[in-house]
Amino acid sequence: MTKHHNNKEQDILAAAKVEFLEKGYDGARTTSIARIAGVTHAMLHYYFKTKDQLFERIFHETIGTLVKSILDVFTQDEMPFKDRMAKALEMHFEVIRENHLLPLFMIREVASRPERFSMIKNVISSFAGNLLVTMQHDIDLAAKRGEITPIDAPTLLLDMLSLNVFPFIIKPVFEAATGLNLNAESKFWDQRKKENIEIIMRRLTPSQA
Amino acid sequence: MTKHHNNKEQDILAAAKVEFLEKGYDGARTTSIARIAGVTHAMLHYYFKTKDQLFERIFHETIGTLVKSILDVFTQDEMPFKDRMAKALEMHFEVIRENHLLPLFMIREVASRPERFSMIKNVISSFAGNLLVTMQHDIDLAAKRGEITPIDAPTLLLDMLSLNVFPFIIKPVFEAATGLNLNAESKFWDQRKKENIEIIMRRLTPSQA
DNA sequence: ATTATCTATAGATCTATAGATAATGC
DNA sequence: ATTATCTATAGATCTATAGATAATGC
Fold first, then answer.
1. Shortest distance, CA A172 to any CA of chain B (angstroms)
2. CA distance readout (Å), B185 to A128, B14, B175, B182, B196
3. Which of B27, B166, B199 sits opposite A166 (nearest CB)?
4. What's the confidence (pLDDT) of residue B67?
5. In terms of CA atoms, which chain A residue is nearest residue B63?
6. Which of A100, A187, B6, B185 is 20 to 30 A (C-alpha) from A34?
7. Domain B50-204 superfamily per CATH
């Protein structure tokens, strides 16, 4: 035991992820998680004590995925700055595409319970701090070379995140309004990725005057 | 009566708006709404029967505000297309700025209970249909005149919404990560508005080749 | 003899309503 | 005599736990 007892534990975690991502903490039901996982309700408290602790596990995991997706943006090897940005945008877009429920989940939970975020605040801010410094440094170099127009790193980062993340956040509304199922429409997302790269490339291009 | 009995009714509506926008349907408590409104809990059911009906009132109202904010984008009088877009972006940005909790609220509710949206689905889709047709028509004209580069209307609309809305949606996360209070930082939002206009203008500029 | 699982239920929380009392308009 | 408001509580729902039983490793 202690070794392979984790089949059910894993089932519960997987079920919890589905339930929390779709309904949020307040909307999620521990009974519903147990049902999805195919275990009795008591098992859930046996392995994870409380709903809160189960939630923390899922929340941490998602934060990790999202933070990593942003950090990877700048762990590119040496290429011209614009090419690196294009590549970064593409990679980041694909991560979000694979995990399209994560951004809304994270935002919703932070919005409705800001205190929950404070524990990982330090993690994110330290990461983000380094990221922005590196980014600004590279921007300045490329601008000096005349490859791009100067821009603030935080501004550029928010531009990129807005374009790459928002379409996935608005997806349910869009689907409700149009009746389309965007998961089936891979062309739509391919086109969106291209558009985002196009926009950022144009934003970075030095203005000819 | 029947005439000015609505002071408390209005108090309840105002309180419900605060509670629902902050916590979402699942997180909202009718007892909490009553407390905020300064009335006893039973009053809430006296005026609005159920939590659901009270929610519907608030939800409808917010949908209206948001849909209007997008429609207004194209009720501009005659100017060059790019100027109209710049003006539209600015107006839309200010509406969201005044109602910064609305987008996340709407998206969250639709995501966690898609069936709730179906009733107003028709409203939105008919509006959006007209908007996109008009928009595409104007785009084609301006492109033919050489004022802008050709672009799909839905693509352009999603670009604009992403840039204008996402920063307000990510606000709580950003504040949690940095410790800043962005409501106090009006310079930040002014700069963001300018940046969004800058991006879209560059996106629309014909590529010189 | 420790770990895993189930049944049954306690305890907390939240929505909703019944029924009594107060306020207002006619 | 209709509308508004309050007190008290029913009823539903959900999380959590106690305690019994089954399965596993030594």
1. 6
2. 20, 26, 11, 5, 17
3. B166
4. 84
5. A173
6. A100
7. Tetracycline Repressor, domain 2 (1.10.357.10)
* Least confident interval from A47-51, B75-79, B152-156: B75-79
List CB contacts (< 8 A) between A111 and chain B. 22, 104, 172
Contact at CB, A117 and B173, closer than 8 angstroms: yes
Tell the residue number behind the tokens 């700069």, with chain if given. Answer: B191
DSSP chain A: --SSTHHHHHHHHHHHHHHHHHHHHHH--HHHHHHHHTS-HHHHHHHHSSHHHHHHHHHHHHHHHHHHHHHGGG---S--HHHHHHHHHHHHHHHHHHTTTHHHHHHHHHHH-HHHHHHHHHHHHHHHHHHHHHHHHHHHHHHHTTSS----HHHHHHHHHHHHHHHHHSHHHHHHHH---TTT-HHHHHHHHHHHHHHHHHHHSPPP-
Nearest C-alpha in A relative to B168: A162
Task: Give me B21's structure tokens.
Answer: 């926008």
What is the mean pLDDT of the segment spanning B152-160? 95
Q: Strand ranges (DSSP E) for B5-151?
A: none
Instruction: Check residues A54 and B67 and name the one with the higher pLDDT.
Output: A54
Q: Which nucleotides of strand D are protein-proximal, with an atom < 7 A from a CB?
A: 2-8, 14-19, 24-25
Average pLDDT estimate for A185-195:
95
User: Do A1-49 and A50-204 have matching folds?
Assistant: no
- The CATH class that applies to domain B1-49 reads mainly alpha
Protein-proximal positions, strand C, CB < 7 A: 2-8, 14-19, 24-25
Q: Enumerate the domain spans of chain A.
A: 1-49, 50-204
Which chain A residue lies closest to B188 (C-alpha atoms)?
Answer: A155
User: A191 vs B125: CB contact, 8 Å cut-off?
Assistant: no
Length A32 CA → C4 C1' (Å)? 21
- Model confidence over B78-112: pLDDT tens digits? 789 999 999 999 999 999 999 999 999 999 998 88
